[in-house]
Amino acid sequence: MQSLHYLTLSVFIPPLLAVFAEPKSLNFEGGTANVGMIMDWREMAGRPTVRGMQEEGRWSQYSWAWSGGRRVGYGWDQWDGRTDPIRGWIIAFCWLVACSADIYYLYVLIRRPRLILDFALTLVFNHLVLTTYYSASVPTSLFFWLVMILGSALTVILAEQLCVKREMNEGLVVPVQQGNDSVEEMELGSLLRRD
Fold first, then answer.
1. 1-29 average pLDDT score
2. DSSP calls for 13-80
């Protein structure tokens, strides 16, 4: 499930960022196909991932950007230090799209309504552990937490409803009537599924 979720994110995030995000700050932080766009909670929160010193409102020549453990940008002449607020909204939108795709994945692969909650919350918990490890800080953005809660609720509620509906449809099998017997006269016990 985790792999399918990240695969869905990696399909949607780069093209949408390439079209809608501000390219100068995006290139300074590693580009659209950067793993940090998926794994770093600060990208969704719209916070800078740049480490360095600020002098008189501008980034000093000693400022740099790191992505995945390597330096991807250096110096304030390449970037003015501003973050792109559109980038966070795009990543949040893609997260919700991936949660919508997770509904289908859970419906097809897991199939049991009682397991949906476990799988969906395990996916979010694993993401929280991975994003905390990747960014070396615990997520502190209210926007990030709201997107996680909204995505989890969407996934759990809709996937469980679909699985319950499928189980209700598959659970009863009406035998073919032969002769003069009517459905009203049939015993309830004969409606149960025979395996």
1. 87
2. HHHHHHHHS-HHHHHHTT-TT-THHHH-HHHHHT---EE--EETTEE-TT-EEEETTEEEEESTTT--
